Amino acid sequence: MNLSDLKWTDVAAMDRNTPVVFPVAALEQHGHHLPLFTDSMLLSEVLRRAVGRVRGPVLVSPLTWLGNSEHHLDFPGTLSATPRVYLDLINGLAENFLVHGFRRIIFLNGHGGNDVPGKQALFEVRQRHRKRGDLLLLFATYWHLAPQAKDCFPGLKQHEMGHACEWETSMILRLSPQLVGSITDIKPVEFGTAFEPASRAWITQERTVPGHIGFPNLASEAKGEALFEAFAEASGRFLQRVVDWDGVSWNG
């Protein structure tokens, strides 16, 4: 069910154990060849396919397209909520539906920069409601739900999600090929290892001059379809676990 299609009385009549999904993504630079709305477009399609696999009701909020994209601000066109503003946004969205009485709140994420603040925001929400034992507050990035995605198509060069990369470019080729610029002569930008396993603070411009990270020159529509299906299958399984949760167990 799409929240935007309902009347308030429809929501008032719903079972409060119905999972509420907030899709969160971004509007930011994606190299020389992909549209600024890439993350939001891809997440929307993954979620559309995933919800169709779930047995039981799921309430889906409209996409929150404004993300934490501060690291991309050197590239014109990027729009970003500063980290504290983004934390407050996620806090507020979750609290809205807690006020409405819902108990299972899921943020499904399609932008890497949202991952850390999104998790922090839900941690903050949980501490405010620490005496409640009936809440399920989850933040999940769709490609983290599908570690097997690297095996979904023979010959995938990348084993993980990059940025405007083989994976994202393939998916946009499948979804909206008219929005993809020429990729034939794009030179790959290696992922690098930084100081792993430590987490290094970074801005995009110090990792890549053109804006992409990965191998967009290897993208294809067929790879895109395989990736969409891998991500939708994993996201659907995740949402089914939320629907099936018994309301008390630690494990789901």
Descriptive overview:
This protein is an alpha/beta fold. It has one domain: Creatininase (Rossmann fold, 3-Layer(aba) Sandwich), CATH 3.40.50. Helix content is 33%, strand content 8%. The chain contains six helices and four strands, in the order αβαβαβαβαα. Strands 2-1-3-4 form a four-stranded parallel sheet. Helix 4 links the parallel strand 3 and strand 4. The radius of gyration is 18 Å and the shape is globular. The relative contact order is 0.19. The mean pLDDT is 97.
Low-confidence stretches: none
**How many strands in all?**
4
Total number of domains: 1
Q: What portion of the residues fall into strands of 2 or more residues?
A: 5-15%
Features:
single chain, 252 residues, alpha/beta, Rossmann fold, four-stranded parallel beta sheet, 6 helices, 33% helix, 8% strand
